[in-house]
Amino acid sequence: MNQTFALAHSFLLDMLRQRTVVFSCFILPLVILWSTWWVTADLPMEFRIDSGRIIQSSMIDIHLVTGALTAMAITAGLFAFLVTAEARRVADPLKVAGYSGFAVAAGPFTAILGVLLVAALASFGLATALDVPQQPLGVLWSVVLTTLTYAAVGALIATVYPRVMEGSFIVLLLSFIDLMFVSNPMGEGVYMQSWAYWLPGFWATQIALESGFLATDTVLVKATALSLMYALALGLLSVLLRLRPPAFLRRAMRAA
Amino acid sequence: MTSGAVLRAQEVTFGYNRNHPILRNLDLEVDAGEIVGISGENGSGKSTLLKAIIGLLKPQQGTIRVRGRAGYSPQELLLFDHLTVRENFRVFGRAAGLPRARIDHDADSLMERLGFTKYRETKIGELSGGTAQKLNFAISLLGSPEVLVLDEPYQGMDHASYVAFWEMQQALRRHGKAIIVVSHLIEDEKRFTRTLHLVNGRLQACAQKGCPYCGEGPP
User: Fold this and answer.
1) Are residues B123 and B85 in the same domain?
2) Cβ distance of B16 and A250 shorter than 8 Å
3) Å from A146 to nearest chain B CA?
4) Is B204 found in the same domain as B136?
5) Are residues B57 and B104 in the same domain?
6) pLDDT-derived band of residue B1, with 50, 70 and 90 as boundaries?
């Protein structure tokens, strides 16, 4: 465990000393969130959630509830991507130097979780400072689930394709399209389409919407189970691809 | 392994694509106190061989046995770019099980000998290529490994550092360390106890004068 914490500390220092990382992971999501919230009209909206419940709200209130999720998805996805890409780069010398395989894998993972836990609490605090949801704990739980799923997305992308520019762009685009558009009731014509259920942020958003506007928990269990399974599946896929990369992936990794 | 051998590779075959092995039934035995130079064309598999020796790549056939710990200085700089030189020493020294005071002492001594003490608090990303390479090499020496595996270790080093590097190699050799160096520099051959050429996936001993793999051979 000492080795794991020593590596987690090194990865944290290495990451947080980079202005580009701090800007893209922690400041950019807030700027995007603020600007989106600022330009959203305060028009009434009606939408349903997966359990069939109908919610009446306004566009700006929806953004207040889902905003923390979007910011966290960007933060979690980008930070996990950058740490995993860095971990892949230095993994070999660390192993040769004497770190165990477990420490080399768990060190960056601990760094990611530590930072994202703090960021999730900050994100939740910001959201509840702007508006008090019906069930604050439900909104907090949805932020945590989004953090886990998008951290797994970032780690998977870094495993498959660790180039910083392209990988960051994919994470940013995916989280934006998912949480600001498709999984969000604001996404007219795409929200609740059957294919949208497969997006990483869909089920966490369902919890956020119900917790934000209703005092019920009709989607909580199903959405929690599916979100956790989603994160777990992506995490296991990353580990599997790392341990036994198929030939096409080995070629792509060498090229990257 | 023979009594003095600290590294023995037998019938090693490895390829990133199983149908096109880079190393084919390769044999290598290195004794304590040897400095073995390995040369070969670009893409001949030198770096692949070194990675197999230190255990980063698993041979598809054959065995590699190393007695004791191996230190590795890779061709490219694979350190934490935003940590300082001292912090990188501490991260890698800790892996060798050294206490912090001992790491700092050894790091100071290595920096002094290789002439980059003034960069001790500089971040890696701000170092010149040559200084970064010295650090790469110095880190491979932490914990006093029995076998040193160095992949083109003096790229970008200035002349004084290059001379210091070889003085250190000779001292390590006298202390019974086995050293494997990948080098393209023909003038280095006189510094090796043996020179091997990696040709068609196998190691060939350098025939010295008139060697078909190194032109005129060493002076």
Assistant:
1) yes
2) yes
3) 29
4) no
5) no
6) low
Tell me the per-residue pLDDT of B163-197, one tens digit each, with 9 for 90 and over.
888 888 899 999 999 999 998 776 777 888 888 98
Domain limits for position B11: 1-68+147-152+180-208
Q: Do B2 and B61 fall within a single domain? A: yes
Could you please report the per-residue DSSP string of chain A? -HHHHHHHHHHHHHHHT-HHHHIIIIIHHHHHHHHHHHH----EEEEE-TTS-EEEEEHHHHHHHHHHHHHHHHHHHHHHHHHHHHHHHHHHHHHHHT--HHHHHHHHHHHHHHHHHHHHHHHHHHHHHH---S-HHHHHHHHHHHHHHHHHHHHHHHHH---HHHHHHHHHHHHIIIIIIISSTTSTTTTT-GGGGGSTTHHHHHHHHHHHH-S--SSHHHHHHHHHHHHHHHHHHHHHHHHS--HHHHHHHHH-
CATH number at residue B4: 3.40.50.300
Question: Which pLDDT value is given to residue A242?
Answer: 82
Residue A92 sits at the chain B interface (C-beta within 8 Å): yes
Is the CB of residue B139 less than 8 Å away from at least one CB of chain A? yes
Q: Do the Cβ atoms of B78 and A92 come within 8 Å?
A: yes
Query: Scanning every residue of chain B, which has its alpha carbon at the shortest distance from the alpha carbon of A94?
Result: B92
- Structurally, chain B folds into a number of domains equal to 2
Q: Which residues of B touch A11 (CB under 8 A)?
A: 80
Kindly report the nearest CA distance between residue B218 and chain A, in angstroms. 33
Regarding whether B40 and B19 lie in a shared domain, the answer is: yes
The answer, for B210 touching chain A at a CB cutoff of 8 Å, is no
User: Does B96 map to a domain?
Assistant: yes
CB contact A245 to B (< 8 Å)? no
B77 in the same domain as B129 = yes
A85 contact B CB<8A: no
pTM (2 d.p.):
0.85
- Please check whether residue B97 touches A, CB under 8 A: yes
